[in-house]
Amino acid sequence: MNDDAAIAANGHVSFLDYQGKYKGIRAWILSTDHKRIGIMYLFALITFFAIGVTFGFLIRLELLTPGKTIVEPQVYNEFFTLHGVIMIFLFVIPGIPAVFGNFFLPIMIGAKDVAFPRLNLLSWYLYVTGGILIIVSIIMPGGPADTGWTFYIPYSVRTTTNVIATGTAAFLLGFSSILTGLNFITTIHRLRAPGMAWFKMPLFAWSLYATAWIQVLATPIIGITLLLIIVERVFGVGLFDPALGGDPILYQHLFWIYSHPAVYIMIVPAMGVISEIIPVFARRTIFGYKFIAFSSLGIALFGSLVWGHHMFAVGMSDAGQFVFSFLTFMVAIPSAIKVFNWTATLYKGSISLDPPMLYALAFIFLFSIGGFTGLIQGALSVDIHLTDTSFIVGHFHYVMFGGTGMGVFAALHYWLPKMFGRMYNMKRAKVAFWIIFVGFNTLYFPMFVMGWLGMPRRYYDYLPEYTVYHQIATVGSWILIIGMGIMFTNLIRGILKGNVVTEKNIWGGETLEWATDTPPIHENFEEIPLVTGTPYEYKQNDIEELPEEVIH
Amino acid sequence: MIAQASNLVNTVNNTFYFIVGVSVFFLVIITFCMVYFVIRYSRKRNPKATNIHGNVPLEIAWTVIPTLIALVMFWYGWTDYKLESSPPADTYNIGVTGQMWQWRFQYPNGLEMDSLYLPLNKDVKVSITSKDVNHSFFIPAFRVKKDAIPGRTNIAWFRPEKEGVYNFFCAEYCGMRHSYMITKAIVLPLNDFNSYINNRFAAMKTSQANDSIKAAQHDTTKSTQHK
Q1: In a domain, B166, yes or no
Q2: What's the pLDDT at A443?
Q3: Which residue of A lies nearest to B43 if distances are taken between CA atoms?
Q4: What is the CATH number of the domain that holds B68?
Q5: Which DSSP symbol is given to B172?
Q6: What is the CATH number of the domain that holds B198?
């Protein structure tokens, strides 16, 4: 059956019920529909996230008391490596672009699909293969890598654990990321609906566009670097290992040339989500549209030039230290501009604190703490004291989890009803939010304190003076996990058994995904929309309230 | 409270507390605005929103002012760092070698120890290297950290300004017993320090001498037996 015939046979049915060439499970795993691929990403992502959380929980449990609490040092080192690798490569990097970008980018710019649907499916397979390889490395002889997610040489050349398996996985995941980026750039350039000029695009699309360029330009470097590690380990070519005549600092440069921009691959799409949610729930136009759009590009540009700030203690030249510290302070400015514009968007709004908005506001608060602690570490002399202590662990969890993680949670609460046509329980969602917010700060804030007091990171054991901070943090991890348990249970129950939503526009948004059916039909629109205005006009300000029966 | 025991402490602390202060100030403003707007412009109190598309002077203000403040922060960090990275001409020099999972310290007279003894109020320069993988020399009470990297020698300097025993950590992940690669930095008044170093050196020489006599005897016995 060709597509036209399929549409004729199906009428305008939801993509969830659409009958194409394949039936059953094959209708999903062979589908090139961007929405189905987005949902497949969602389930894979949540699975890996759960595994990553488990390792995080085990790390904190081990640190509950000095000395041995549950496992030996070697196992602890494998825990934090797996936690880092899974969370970075399988959750925060792909997270928002692969799930919500895939599902909503084409709809938001008025397209039927992404530019290369088959490549899109291939990138999902690469992602899942990479993920499975990491999981399999846990049970392979030799055990999972114990190098930390940074794979620093020479240690990663010497360890007998499965560094090659993990490196190969990261390489595959990098390819997946590049293909997604390439797809999004082309989609945005070529497939915008008639009338959708660049500055009429939703800010989420802008953030994905900036991110996609980083993915395409920076990811090949980590791919090549990981291949070089494998070449060094397997063939004994002296590239990075001084025992073979190589330079370990070269490795660190290559690693961070990718991995710092990767931080922006992680956070910029979340900023895009926040830029969507805030105007919708404040029911007014976004403040400073162009400044928010351009600040994404500014972050993408400056963010590519600051990698050296991970290496202030390795012994770089003074000129290098000067430039990297200077640019680090400059990259803070576009992020600050976003925060100010979001806050100004609340001014004279008509604000309703629905769950997506709560997570968006938590994002602003937690990301600000992450950003300010970034400034603290940007200062050379202070960073010398703080680098490789738990201060940095606190900092990047505030940015990555308080930022991107809250962005994912916000996006889930905002868009899941659209994706599945069912609503979660609002009250339970709010309860879960507050537990998560309290647990998060209890877990990560003590890390700033003990880091300033000198507690090094990646320590299995610690001196008794740090005990109290570790114990508060561990209790925080329990609260956080309870909160997330309630949140995910509520969302999954919502998808399966929640009240059916048929309204197109449940929140009162003005971007195009709210103009399609709920859930969207196959190929998104009955006819390609003609775009006339900007996405956050709110001219009438007279959107109906969410019907009661949907909420409760 | 973290101990403050070197000449670098004040500069690092001042920059740290300056940036923390500015950050808390802005965080409070942002959070206050957010909470105030959420309450003041809640849908109940303000059912109809007012559209404001932006304000260019405001955008310029909140771009330029944070940039200037960031520049000041950068400058403080940089000038402190210049101090940290420029050892004075006349220093007491100690070699530091990291290896999985212990530290070795070499003194000018040839003494080698696994605790770092330091003279009070004397400028100390350390030359840091590693025998195997990356490690990092970290004394929180001095605000000093520098990586120990095989095949390369990194320099750091400081002046211990308070007698006492301080924690010395390895701060770069180096494998299984990374968290046990810790020792102590012990600051003694100059005279005590000198006599301690000399005594330890004499003891080391004697034991080395004894060892070599024993070894020689051992060899002789062996060779006799062989005959």
Answers
A1: yes
A2: 97
A3: A350
A4: 1.10.287.90
A5: S
A6: 2.60.40.420
CA dist A296 and A169 (Å) reads 29
Domains of chain A are: 1-27 (no CATH), 31-551 (1.20.210.10)
Of A289, A313, A333, the CB nearest to B54: A289
Residue B225 in domain: no
Per-residue tokens: A359: 């997570």
Evaluate if residue A274 carries a pLDDT over 70.
Answer: yes
B68, B85, B102: which is the final residue of a domain? B85
- Would B45 be classed as within a structural domain? yes
Q: What is the pLDDT of residue A267?
A: 93
Q: Which positions in chain A touch B49 (Cβ < 8 Å)?
A: 282-284, 348-350, 538, 541
- Give the gap in angstroms from C-alpha A412 to the nearest C-alpha of chain B: 22
Q: What is the DSSP string of B27-50?
A: HHHHHHHHHHHHHHTBTTT-SS--
Q: Judged by CB atoms within 8 Å, which residues 275-334 of A form the interface with B?
A: 282-285, 287-291, 313-315, 318, 321-322, 325-326, 329-330, 332-333
To the nearest whole Å, the CA of B200 is away from the closest chain A CA by 28
- B33 with B124, same domain: the answer is no
Is A351's CB within 8 Å of B37's CB?
yes
Helices (H), A155-288: 155-158, 163-190, 203-235, 248-282
CA of A143, closest CA in chain B: separation in Å?
13
Cα-to-chain-centroid distance, residue B155: 12
ipTM associated with this complex: 0.90
Count Cβ atoms below 10 Å from residue A488 Cβ, excluding itself. Answer: 17
**Beta-bridge partners for A521:** A14, A524
A405-454 tens-digit pLDDT: 999 999 999 999 999 999 999 999 999 999 999 999 999 999 999 999 99
Inter-chain CB proximity B54 and A287 less than 8 Å: yes
Tens-digit pLDDT profile for residues A491-510: 999 999 999 998 889 998 88
In a domain, B226, yes or no: no
Domain that holds residue B75: 9-85
B119 & B205 share domain:
yes
Phi, psi (5° rounding) for residue A551?
Answer: -75, -40
Q: How many domains does chain B have?
A: 2
**Which B residues 26-85 touch A at CB under 8 Å?**
26-27, 30-31, 33-34, 37-38, 41-43, 46-55, 58-59, 62-63, 66-67, 70-71, 73-74, 76-78, 80-85
- C-alpha A381/C-alpha A358 separation (Å) is 37
